[in-house]
Amino acid sequence: MNLLLATRESYVEVSARSPLAQLPQISPPELKNIPCILVASAAQRETEQDYYQTVVGLRGEFLYAETMEEARLMVLSRKGVLPIEGASPLPAAESSIVRLPLVRSGEPILRSYCAFWKKDNSGYYVEDFAELLKAQFTE
User: Can you tell me the distance from the alpha carbon of 36 to that of 80, in angstroms, rounded to the nearest whole number?
Assistant: First the structure.
C-alpha cells in the first residue's frame, strides 16, 4: 500500500549578502560551483547526498551539519546553500537568510512524502496510523 502524505516544493536558503539572494528563483545548474549544506547524521550523509545529486541534480561539493541551527550558521557565513522542502516561514531571527524556490525548466522541484506498508499487513491499526501521520503533514 502507498499513501501520499504530502508534496512539498523545494527551496534553497542563501545568505542575504549573497548575490544569489537577488534572484527570484534558482535551478540546480546555477548552483554547480556552490557547496550544498545538508543536515544529516554521519549514518545518513551518503543517502542524503545521493538524493540531492540524483533526484534534485545538485552537483557541487557537499558539507554537513548536525542541526538546522548549525546549517543556518553556515549559510550566514556564506559557506554554501541549504536545500529545504516546504514553505514554512523562516524564524524571525533568520532575517539575514533568503529562501529561493528551486526550479527545473521554470517549474518547482517537488518532493513527495509517502507511507508504505505491505498489503497483507493492512488493517484498522495500520491504516489509522497512516491517516494520523498524514494529518501531521497538513499541520
Answer: 5
